[in-house]
């Protein structure tokens, strides 16, 4: 988390100020899922993205968009 916030020059307050489905938050959530064992509920809470189901939905659509660009 610290790496991702620092890379974007964000503070903790920035997470609250951005939309739940902010594309940058989705990128952070995707990395957390890929590189750690944290739960979707933890990600939703930590990134202030609403419910874990919202995070799942955003991650699905982001991966679907990435696959369509690669084909």
Comma- or semicolon-separated keywords:
mainly alpha; 5 helices; 71 residues
Describe the structure concisely.
The protein is mostly helical and 71 residues long. 73% of the residues lie in helices and 0% in strands.
Layout: helices, strands, pairs:
Layout: H1 2-8, H2 12-17, H3 23-35, H4 40-46, H5 52-70
How would you describe this structure to a colleague?
The protein has one domain. The protein contains five helices and no strands. The model has no long low-confidence stretch (mean pLDDT 94). The radius of gyration is 12 Å and the shape is globular. It is an all-alpha fold and 71 residues long. Helix 3 packs across helix 5 and helix 4 crosses helix 5. Helix content is 73%, strand content 0%.
> Could you estimate the helical fraction of the residues in percent?
over 70%
The 3D shape can be described as globular
Mean pLDDT: 94
Distance, first to last CA: 31 Å
Global Rg? 12 Å
Poorly predicted sequence stretches spanning 5 or more consecutive residues: none
State the major sheet. Answer: none
Strand content: under 5%
Compute the number of helices.
5
Secondary-structure-based class equals mainly alpha
Oligomeric state of this protein: single chain
Q: Give the topology string: H per helix, E per strand.
A: HHHHH
Could you tell me the number of beta strands? Answer: 0
Number of domains: 1
